[in-house]
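Quick question: who can interpret this fold?

. . .
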Amino acid sequence: AGLSNYSYLLRDDIFWNSIGNTIYFVLGTCIPILSLAVFFAVLLNSRIRLKTYYRILFFLPVITSEVIAVVVWMLMYNPDGPINNLLMMLGVDERLTWLDDSTLAMPAIILLTIWYRLGYFIVLFLSGLQGIPGDLYEVAEVDGAGAWKRFWSITLPLLKPTLAFATTIALIQAVTVFIPSMILTNGGPNGSTTVLSLLIYQTGFTYLDMGKAAAMSVVLFISVMFVTVIQLRFLF
């Protein structure tokens, strides 16, 4: 069909809506996950009691099946579920319909994703931190550098390779997210959680329009490759 599928995408509001939802999801998950992962990795790399148990606790969601985790969170997001019960105890007046509200559905998926993937990135940054010689911190401490100064001058620069890898993985995972939006909302309500990978699936296997689905896949691939190359050049 030549370029007709691509020209159709340029005029398709649903496609552009899915692009916007995907960008929303990427920003809503990648920035908090990477920031929290660095914070907790530094914390768990320090001299604290029971840090092995804390590491296990953070990593437990990663070894859980994503489908099972999503189903459990679906029950938690129920209007009569534990999340609403907790909010009612904290003073919220009414029970929230998390998955039926177009303004709350995407934040609900983002919160689930952060919980599920955080442990993996904590382990990544822990491995990077343990490769930094302790002598550097001792010398900096002798020179009078505080904890914040040591973090900015030693930890962060030497974590660059790990940060580049983690950022790339986080971006690819976020752009290709599928299971949470498929199971929790199936793209609803009103298309507020229809990310690009879900739209590709629906176009190809629900509406059986493989041409347009393939065109979307090419756009997704080129976008991920373009952003990845830019961020790797920026980080290095």
